[in-house]
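Tokens for chain A. Residues wanted.
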């Protein structure tokens, strides 16, 4: 086996199967990352969705016996819809972030990595390989940065010269000693536009994020959204793109290389009111193929209520009253009560007063009081 020729063959094959960029790096431990992760943990800046064992996140040898190199892949995704739909009075819409447009990217990257594994195994039958995407132990961004895919931006995203930060990342640990690629020099310079654009100040400083304050994280939680973030979520029902759209490198970036990533506008910018009464079956039919559906129906419905409050959509008051009265989930009842107070009006006030006498859940009662306070101040 000639590692140099094999590397070029892998690069050539990657282009054939729809991988937009590929890089190679060593399987050495990510020592610098370890210190950052420990600090994040100490500050409680982690989301909780990550691999909790920091050693596994930074040491490829714990994931594959005697690893020699890691292959990093990137696939570019669209930044603009081909067909746009408008949110208007009486027919308000929410929005999924760009990373949740089209087919769930986990499936797309796993497909590419599996094909790449099969190709390598056909050339090196005794090769040991382990692939992962997003939910794996390693940090996709740390691998991509070291493999020369892009630099780690101040918005904590990998920014590629070719596609900006609109890329999905995945990696494969291998037992093959591929020659490493050179990392790309940081090109953010003195720019701080992403930090300034973050609605909640979650970007504490360049390259450091408090995930607990990030709208991308908050829209995936299942409990009550903390009061200070509710209005800042706006009409986002999954994820947030503010730090990406503010990035000058991303200006004009919009790649439709992969048909399965093209978005159905009615799905990724859906009408809000129908979401409130959506059954599990309807949810799966409409949103089940999206990455943004992974936490289930509840967070999307809760976020839809917050978006309705954001728009102060009076046409949705009857639906919100029904949710507040009938929904079995306290988070939904309470969020609806809060939203009714934000929207205001006689019907909202009457309904809140009536439910206040019957509601037994203390958290929901607190939300009812918040709603009534909004109405009294208004």
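Reply:
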């Amino acid at each position: 086996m000639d590692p140099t020729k094999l590397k070029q063959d892998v690069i050539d094959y990657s282009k054939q199967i729809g991988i937009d960029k590929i890089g190679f790096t060593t399987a050495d431990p990510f020592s610098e990352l370890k210190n950052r992760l420990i600090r994040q943990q100490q500050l409680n800046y982690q989301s909780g969705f990550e691999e909790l064992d920091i050693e596994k996140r930074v040491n490829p040898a714990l994931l594959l016996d005697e690893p020699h190199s890691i292959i990093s892949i990137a696939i570019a995704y669209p930044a603009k819809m081909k067909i746009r739909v408008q949110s208007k009075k009486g027919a308000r819409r929410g929005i999924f972030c760009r990373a949740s447009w089209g087919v769930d990217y986990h499936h797309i990257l796993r497909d590419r990595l599996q094909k790449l594994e099969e190709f390598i195994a056909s050339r090196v039958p005794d090769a040991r390989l382990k692939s992962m995407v997003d939910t794996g132990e390693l940090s996709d961004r740390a691998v991509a940065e070291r493999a020369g895919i892009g630099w780690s931006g101040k918005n904590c995203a990998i920014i590629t010269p070719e596609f900006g930060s609109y890329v999905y990342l995945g990696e494969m640990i291998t037992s093959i000693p591929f020659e490493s690629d050179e990392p790309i020099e940081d090109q953010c310079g003195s720019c701080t536009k992403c930090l300034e654009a973050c609605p909640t100040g979650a970007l504490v400083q360049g390259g450091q994020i408090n995930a607990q304050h990030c709208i991308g994280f908050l829209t995936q939680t299942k409990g009550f959204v903390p009061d200070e973030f509710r209005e800042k979520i706006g009409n986002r029902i999954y994820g947030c793109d503010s730090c990406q759209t503010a990035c000058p490198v991303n200006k004009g970036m919009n790649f439709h290389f992969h048909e399965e990533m093209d978005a159905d506008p009615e799905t990724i910018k859906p009408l809000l009111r129908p979401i409130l009464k959506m059954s599990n079956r309807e949810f799966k039919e409409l949103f089940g193929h999206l990455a943004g559906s992974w936490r289930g129906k509840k967070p999307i419905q809760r976020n839809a209520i917050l978006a309705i409050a954001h728009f102060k959509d009076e046409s949705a008051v009857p639906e919100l009253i029904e949710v507040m009265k009938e929904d079995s989930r306290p988070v939904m009842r309470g969020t609806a009560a809060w939203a009714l107070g934000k929207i205001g009006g006689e019907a909202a006030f009457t309904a809140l007063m009536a439910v206040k006498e019957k509601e037994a859940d203390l958290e929901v009662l607190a939300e009812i009081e918040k709603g009534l306070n909004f109405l009294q101040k208004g």
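The two ends are 75 Å apart (CA to CA). The chain has a mean pLDDT of 97.
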